[in-house]
Amino acid sequence: MKVYFFIVYSVYFSCNIFSFEQTGIASWYGPNFHGKLTANGEKFNTYSLTAAHKSLPLGSIVKVVSLDNGKEVVVRINDRGPYAKNRIIDLSKAAAVQLDFIKRGTARVKVYLIKEGDNKYYRYTRDTYTIQAGSFSNKNSAIDIANKLKSTTINPVITEVRVNNKTLYRVEMKNLTYNMLHTHKLELHNANINNYLIKKNK
């Protein structure tokens, strides 16, 4: 009787994708790529807060902190790269402006994963979406969150609903296009609101 042993190898980012951190050199790309397709099917917009990374799932949201000046920016991974040696992330021009390294071209940074992406390839769609930033039994709590978000580019509304004979107050952003959806997601993370829900409108 023969006995066979199988060894299974697994690869993790820092043992857990949700605790991914990486330190290295960031660069930025812009004018020559503006309007061209990114790795996930979107058109690259150098004025949006996006970035290219070699291995994180597309759609991931990360915080990039400059080790040179302490400034930080939250971006979404929608492309692959950088391909230059010893660089870990390639930022859009808008993101590089926030970290203040446009003239130098590179910066020492630390990258933190905030939310793992779905790694999907997206095509243009006319679908619209609703983001629910929170649901509260206390209306004042909903108002507080709505006011917090209004300090950004988001214009939330409070929707009153009945669920199991209870009144809930939902803070929502409605009728968002695909691009608006991702812009709002970044704003939510900048406001430290991470447990939001996304619904595709019928």
Q: Quick check: average pLDDT?
A: 87
Q: Any idea what the radius of gyration is?
A: 20 Å
Low-confidence residue ranges: 1-17
CATH class of the largest domain: Mainly Beta
Characterize the overall form. globular
Roughly how many Å apart are the termini?
A: 60 Å
Q: Count the helices. How many?
A: 3
CATH architecture of the largest domain: Beta Barrel
Judged by helices, strands and strand pairing, the structural class is: alpha+beta
Number of discrete domains? 2
In short:
This protein is an alpha+beta fold and 202 residues long.
Task: Provide an overview of this structure.
The chain has about 200 residues and is an alpha+beta fold. It has two domains: about 15-115, Beta Barrel (Barwin-like endoglucanases); about 130-200, Sporulation related repeat (Alpha-Beta Plaits), CATH 3.30.70. Helix content is about 15%, strand content about 35%. The chain contains three helices and ten strands; from the N terminus they run βββββαββαββαβ. It has helices spanning about 95-100, 140-150, 180-190, and strands spanning about 20-30, 50-55, 60-65, 70-80, 85-90, 105-115, 130-135, 155-165, 165-175, 195-200. Strand 3 and strand 4 (about 70-80) form a beta hairpin. The radius of gyration is 20 Å and the shape is globular. Mean pLDDT is about 85; it is low at about 1-15.
Layout of secondary structure:
Elements: E1 21-28, E2 50-53, E3 61-66, E4 72-79, E5 87-91, H1 93-99, E6 106-115, E7 129-136, H2 139-149, E8 157-163, E9 166-176, H3 178-190, E10 197-200
Parallel strand pairs: 1-5, 2-4
Antiparallel strand pairs: 1-6, 2-5, 3-4, 3-6, 7-9, 7-10, 8-9
